Amino acid sequence: MDKVFCFKNCPSKFCISACPSGALMVEDNKIVVRSNRCYGCGLCRHMCMTWSVLWGQKK
Ligand code: SF4
Ligand code: SF4
Q1: Would 56 be classed as within a structural domain?
Q2: What's the pLDDT tens digit per position in 25-38?
Q3: Has residue 55 been placed in a domain?
Q4: Of all atoms in ligand 2, which is nearest to the CA of residue 33?
């Protein structure tokens, strides 16, 4: 299942290049994570300079 990861979709997209399993992609101007590919390593969150990621945060 895909889940919104970031609404910001910044030009650098460090999160996408950091992901070793290719779980992140751009969809409708948002970054989404394919949960069947994500194994929770956390690299994407570390690479995001602005800490804009939503994934893993409780609302
Ligand atoms: S998660 Fe961070 S690096 Fe990825 S698109 Fe959003 S702001 Fe950019
Ligand atoms: S936690 Fe790891 S595997 Fe999951 S999206 Fe982030 S970088 Fe990719």
Answers
A1: no
A2: 999 999 999 999 99
A3: no
A4: 5
CA of 14 to the centre of ligand 1 (A): 6
**pTM listed for this prediction:** 0.84
Number of domains the chain is built from: 1
Instruction: Give me the CATH number covering residue 27.
Output: 3.30.70.20
> According to the model, what pLDDT value does residue 58 have?
46
Q: What is the pLDDT of residue 55?
A: 59
Average pLDDT for 30-53: 87
Structure tokens, 54: 């939503």
Print the domain residue range for 33. Answer: 2-47
Q: Are strands 24-27 and 2-6 parallel, antiparallel or unpaired?
A: unpaired
Q: What percent of the residues of the chain are helix, what percent strand, and what percent coil, each to the nearest 5?
A: 15, 25, 60
Which ligand 2 atom minimizes the distance to the CA of 22? 8
